[in-house]
Amino acid sequence: MVNNIKFISKENNKDTLLQKIEKARKNKKSQLERKAINAKYDPQNDQIIIQFVDGSEFRFNSQLGQGLQSATPEQLAEVEITPSGQGLHWESLDADLRIPDLLQGVYGNQKWMSELKRKKLI
Predict the structure, then answer these.
(1) Sign of the four-CA dihedral 69, 40, 108, 115
(2) What domain count does the chain have?
């Protein structure tokens, strides 16, 4: 650094770009590994269960999902996985939830999440 001016070599920029590319590739690979292959409704526990290609599962109470709170068990059982493996869809409820959001504890839009917090459900 000379007179508070930082010099960046072209080589440093190239290394930084390559690191960013590698990080993006790893992130994409990890997203693919978390691709859902099955989803079902467990009426005994009132939970939606998502199964992933790596054999892991994620469960959440159906009442947490935006658009699912007044659904019948029959409607909840009609859950479908989107073609990308990154979403859940209920045709008869016109409800959709993103799996990456669910994994982060986000069960709907901001207003929905505020309501869940107000009711102390999350």
Answers:
(1) positive
(2) 1
How many other CB atoms sit within 10 Å of the CB of residue 31?
A: 14
Q: Is the residue at 44 inside a domain?
A: yes
pLDDT tens string 9-55: 555 566 676 777 777 666 655 555 579 999 999 999 999 999 999 99
Residue 25 lies in a domain: no
Q: Where are the alpha helices (DSSP H) in 1-122?
A: 10-33, 73-76, 99-103, 110-118
**pTM for the whole thing?**
0.72
> Contact 63/75 with Cβ under 8 angstroms?
no
CA pair distance 87, 103, nearest whole angstrom = 11
Confirm whether 24 is domain-assigned.
no
Domain extent, residue 40, equals 36-118
- How long a stretch of residues is the chain? 122
